[in-house]
């Protein structure tokens, strides 16, 4: 018994020390887990926010969603259907090449393009141009959609948010593209029509620069959107007014002016062009100058074969 008593007395302190060690370890673990969130950098919030019905996304079209300008591609399609002559095609070809090489939207240049387009469609029915526009999308536009930008738009759609195109292109053309991409809708330049026939004039002014910002504000008000929770995407410094009114501005394939502004203001950048030259002057490397001219040359060759 004495031996047993001795053994018991020796075990009790050891057991007490074990309990104390266990309690101390548990307390330390509890404190550590409580301190971990504050000691670690906060994770970036998920964006776009799933189920946020007051958020939406607004995408510029030319050089943001689509390589080149939609209006130029539309012009090529109209030429193929004999809406105008080869001399006018050459003018469209030059305008498209200039736009792709410059990588910027010069207002005076774009106004000249729009005037040319309005003169071409004058006297034609709106329904006729809409039907032709569907065909032109498949022929010249579908394979010029930037996959990266398309994925951004889809992310908003998957989150349950609405997505609009906002472009200086004709609203009919923009609506066709938005529908084919599964987007909510489009804001675009409105050409005047009377009795369903184009007059060759615009309603108001082209949806360009500050006009885009005003259109987005008006739509947001009508749709009950909170612009601070919305996103906007563009390649052009001309769209800084639109990008500045949303809480999540993105510079996509940006021109020099927008890239500089985005960096100065901490805006996010996305560039889906590849190659040093593409990043510098805005030409998609997969296309190149030769490919830009190639489509036009093919259209000219088609016209010659028909003569």
TrEMBL record:
The chain crosses the membrane at residues 281-302. Gene3D superfamilies: HAD superfamily/HAD-like (3.40.50.1000), SG protein - dephosphorylation function (1.20.1440.100). InterPro entries: HAD-like_SerB, HAD-like_sf, HAD_hydro_SerB1, HAD_sf. GO terms for molecular function: hydrolase activity. Pfam families: HAD (PF12710). It comes from the Bacteria. Residues 17-45 are annotated as: Disordered. Signal peptide: none annotated. Belongs to the HAD-like hydrolase superfamily. SerB family. This is HAD-IB family hydrolase. It comes from Streptomyces coffeae. The lineage of its organism: Bacteria, Bacillati, Actinomycetota, Actinomycetes, Kitasatosporales.
């Amino acid at each position: 018994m004495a031996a047993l008593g001795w053994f018991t007395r020796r075990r009790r302190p050891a057991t007490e020390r074990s309990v104390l060690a266990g309690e101390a370890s548990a307390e330390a673990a509890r404190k550590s887990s409580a301190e971990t969130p504050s000691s670690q950098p906060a994770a970036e919030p998920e964006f776009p926010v799933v189920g946020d019905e007051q958020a939406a996304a607004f995408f510029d079209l030319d050089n943001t969603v689509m390589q080149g300008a939609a209006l130029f591609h539309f012009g090529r399609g109209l030429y193929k259907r004999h809406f105008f002559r080869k001399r006018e095609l050459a003018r469209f070809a030059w305008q498209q090449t200039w736009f792709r090489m410059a990588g910027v939207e010069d207002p005076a240049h774009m106004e000249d393009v729009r005037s040319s387009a309005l003169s071409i469609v004058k006297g034609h029915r709106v329904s006729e141009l809409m039907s032709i526009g569907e065909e032109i999308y498949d022929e010249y536009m579908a394979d010029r959609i930037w996959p990266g930008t398309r994925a951004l738009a889809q992310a908003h759609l998957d989150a349950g948010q609405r997505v609009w195109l906002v472009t200086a292109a004709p609203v009919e053309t923009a609506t066709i593209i938005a529908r084919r991409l599964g987007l909510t809708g489009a804001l675009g330049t409105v050409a005047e029509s009377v009795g369903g026939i184009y007059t060759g004039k615009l309603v108001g002014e082209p949806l360009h620069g500050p006009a885009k910002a005003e259109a987005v504000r008006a739509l947001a008000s009508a749709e009950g959107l909170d612009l601070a929770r919305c996103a906007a995407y563009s390649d052009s410094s001309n769209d800084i007014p639109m990008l500045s009114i949303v809480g999540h501005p993105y510079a996509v394939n940006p021109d020099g002016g927008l890239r500089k502004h985005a960096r100065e203001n901490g805006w996010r950048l996305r560039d889906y062009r590849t190659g040093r030259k593409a990043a510098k002057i805005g030409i998609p490397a997969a296309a190149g100058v030769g490919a830009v001219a190639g489509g036009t040359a093919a259209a000219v060759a088609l016209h010659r074969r028909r003569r």
